[in-house]
Prior knowledge:
Strand content: 25-35%
Radius of gyration: 27 Å
Structural class: alpha+beta
CATH class of the largest domain: Alpha Beta
Shape: elongated
CATH topology of the largest domain: TATA-Binding Protein
Number of strands: 10
Largest sheet: 10 strands, antiparallel
Strand order of the largest sheet: 2-3-4-5-1-6-10-9-8-7
Amino acid sequence: MVKTELKVVNIVASTSLEHDIPLIKLAETLPNTEYNPEQFPGLVMRIKDPKTSALIFSSGKIVCTGARSLPKVKESIKKIIENIEKIKIKITIEPKINVQNMVASGSIGMDLNLNELAIKLQNTEYEPEQFPGLVYKLQGTRATFLLFSNGKIVCTGTKSEDKLNEALVKLVQNLEKITKKSKKPTKKKTTKKKTTRKKKK
């Protein structure tokens, strides 16, 4: 049985505060913000604890990145609202959080022959001269895996831990099918030795 390990390292989530936000005023008031409207319409707000970053738009839409769990996403959104309320804007709704993407990294506990996988798996991209990992889009899921020869993996594209774990199980099944086929022993031909009996004199 393959020993797998996969941990969520980043969650990208969005929400709406359903309230217009004066970004210039927010940038002028709070030191933990960056706002360059000529380059990008959103304001960047950095939260120290939990360590996350948020893109805030004037419409009240927020995209939060950096949290490693859903409770940390909720905690981060709460801190963002507290910061916004410092410029006398009252948020009265309970924001609905939508997970857009989960990024997880870990190991599947076995070495991988990436050249072989690139040939035998569907939906792969492998250009070792440019990047040492193989990109594998797992059919029937939203998951895309980065596979490395030492068994390290990165998964992106899923929206829940359940779907992430389902994708991991499916990945291991697909890899085991290929590794088992390539390890099948070839049958050796057995040659019978001729025995010669000496005639008694």
